[in-house]
Amino acid sequence: MPMKHEYAIYDSAWKEILEAFFESFIQFYFPEVHSEIDWERGHEFLDKEFQKIIRVAKTGKRFVDKLIKVYRKTGEEIWILIHIEIQTQIDYELDERMYIYNSVVYLRYKKQVMSIAVLGDENPHWRPDRFEYTIWKSRISFQFCTVKLLDYQECIETEKHKSNPFYFFTIAHLKTLETRKDMQKRSEWKFEITKRLHEEGLDQETISSLFRFIDFMMVLPEDLEIKFTDKINRFQEEQNMPFIAPFEELAMKRGMKRGMEEGMEKGMEKGMEKGMEKGILQEAQETVVDNLSIRFKRIPPSLIKSIKKIEDLSFLRDLRKKAIVVESLEQFKHIMNSNS
């Protein structure tokens, strides 16, 4: 898989898990900050405000930049800006971009901002954490927080933080990088991480959500994906631990409802079976559309209509992954049409 396609997968996975487990993110990487935030007041993602900031800053579009409003226990409103940097090559403009974003937020909204850069690359020596310049007797110095994911290799061995979703997601990120050229090894780690999810005793909703993000990131070739699924199914049967991927779980619930309604007219057993199949199919179609929306924001209605006509579940699962790595909607359409 080309490098930039891998980055798109990382970006999309990080975007989704940040939105689902933001408090856990702060707790895992910044425990001292977590203890000062009043989580009972909740938090708010300021996507609309951040889009305005990007336009003012004119630094170009970033895949994962999140602006979140929280409250300290003292009652003070604080904004947290999170930037995820996945590229393996050194980005010499990162420090300047962090400074610009922070400055524009303060200039436009007069809010204090905690700026965080998550460095997901493989270079142990690249650790930007400040932007500075001096001219005559005038000096600017801006320091931001960094999370270097390579520093969390110890997470794999330690028992600490195992109840935090980012324990598992950090391992998944690191192992995805490490196994870029060894898909068999990636499959083994994907199974190991999934098994640990079950063994840790997390609630079913958290397990399902986490598996979705991990599955999203740790992409496998079709043959290894089939073997992985079979292995997980056997593990579940042996341990009596039910596990269903999120989109299939939701689809089954919707399908059950439709099936029960149809079953009243056509015979309960056959009606439920047909409804479940229909629900899974529709949810798979919607997942493809959702992934395209993450990648390209606006999707033509005609393309959405074409996706919802596809009834091959295996092909839809393939499109689900293709949707986050294609370079353009035209390329995605070509892939779709090639199966016609």
Task: Describe the protein in words.
This protein is of the alpha/beta class and 340 residues long. It folds into two domains: 3-152; 246-338, no CATH class. 58% of the residues lie in helices and 12% in strands. A five-stranded mixed β-sheet has the order 1-2-3-4-7, with helices on both faces. A two-stranded antiparallel ribbon has the order 5-6. Helix 1 runs antiparallel to helix 8, helix 7 runs antiparallel to helix 8 (204-217) and helix 11 runs parallel beside helix 13 (313-322).
Question: What is the element layout, followed by pairings?
Answer:
Layout: H1 3-20, H2 22-29, H3 31-34, E1 44-45, H4 47-57, E2 65-71, E3 77-85, H5 94-109, E4 113-119, E5 130-135, E6 138-143, E7 145-148, H6 165-178, H7 183-199, H8 204-217, H9 222-239, H10 246-266, H11 268-296, H12 301-307, H13 313-322, H14 329-338
Parallel strand pairs: 3-4, 4-7
Antiparallel strand pairs: 1-2, 2-3, 5-6
Number of helices: 14
Q: Summarize the biggest pleated sheet.
A: 5 strands, mixed
- In one word, what is the shape? globular
Task: Tell me the radius of gyration.
Answer: 22 Å
User: What proportion strand?
Assistant: 5-15%
> In what order do the strands lie side by side in the largest sheet?
1-2-3-4-7
Please indicate the count of domains: 2
How do the helices and strands follow one another from N- to C-terminus? HHHEHEEHEEEEHHHHHHHHH
Low-confidence stretches: 249-258
Number of strands: 7
How widely separated are the two ends? 24 Å
Give the overall average pLDDT: 80
The percentage helix is 55-70%
Structural class: alpha/beta
